[in-house]
Write a structure and sequence with these properties.
Layout lengths: L1 E2 L3 E5 L5 H11 L13 E7 L4 E8 L2 E7 L8 H14 L4 E6 L4 H5 L4 E6 L3 E7 L3 H11 L8 E6 L6 H13 L2 E6 L9 H11 L6 E5 L22 H22 L3 E5 L5 H13 L6 E5 L3 E2 L2 E5 L2 H9 L6 H4 L2 H9 L2 H11 L5
Parallel strand pairs: 5-6, 9-10, 9-12, 10-11, 12-13
Antiparallel strand pairs: 1-2, 2-3, 3-4, 4-5, 6-8, 7-8, 14-15
Helix pairs in contact: 4-7, 6-11, 7-8
Amino acid sequence: MIENSDFRIEEADLSCKFDVKLIKDFMSPLGFDFDEKTVEYSAMLYNLNDDIVGVGSYHGKILKYLAVAPHFRESGAFAFMVTHLTEKVMVNHQQAFVFTRPENIVRFESLGYNHIASADPMISVLEFGYKNINNYKNYLHKVKSHKQETEIAAIVMNCNPFTLGHQYLIERASSENQLVYVFVVESERSAFSFKDRIEMIRQGIAHLKNVVLVKGDEYVVSCATFPNYFLKNEMVDTITKKQAELDINIFAQHLAPALGIKKRYVGTENYCATTKVYNEVMKEILPDYNIEFIEVQRREIEDNEKEYISASKVRKAIKNRNTEVLYDLLPKSTLGYINNHGLIDKVEQVLQKSDARH
């Protein structure tokens, strides 16, 4: 228990139905649907009369379900709760993120948070910590080419795993531009690890001399900027669209200017509703930043013009032990990497346990 002169904070026991009910009963009238399975820590804020006046949670680096009773919002309750949660997160991480409504930006900025981007009027993302987006921009400066290229494109990929389709899209962009930056999603929420994914890409594009691989960190389709990307969800809601908008705004406002990017390539999306809406939102937003949106028809499976190559087909084949299909979907470099590192068995076990989309 933590106290100051006006409030005290008590950690909730998320395995206790009574504590979970207290949080849900407090948050429901404020428009929150609390799900204890999506957080690792929750706390309740009490006033001197032992009334709950605020709650807050976090998962990993992200503050979640943070709410203060309306008649206590001008008191020190909000600052007390945010400071408590931030300090807890910073014990294990160098940074903390929070999603909030744009009207709350000033409140968080007064507590040391920095605004990264918004998807008005619903979502803003802010960060706090020793590590921040300026560190990532310094990294981008280190990987940036200084050969004075003018035709510069970007592709964002998860590559779970790297397929003939991914290779085709990169080759297309490479042939049409002087330089291509391939941002690789770094969040460890995929069947294949980031280390394996980026190495498969590296081997699959070794013949392309104008392509630079870039680590996505927390700012490219990450659990911080676009958490719904990693959920198996056929229904695309407003939150998913706004998360997509937020992620794209971060790319357009911070990443593209740092590297001089003028184009962004994507493959047509035939299978994943979330990725499809992401592409649609991108098509709307990027022209506002003078970034050309280029959609390339997804590569077809050889001898089967009605079927397209996708990483989801690869994962399904591995899960079902239908490895013969992989020869039609993967470059020789990926096949060799998977076999040499014994990844079929490892990934199959992950897929049997996981409901994740990506």
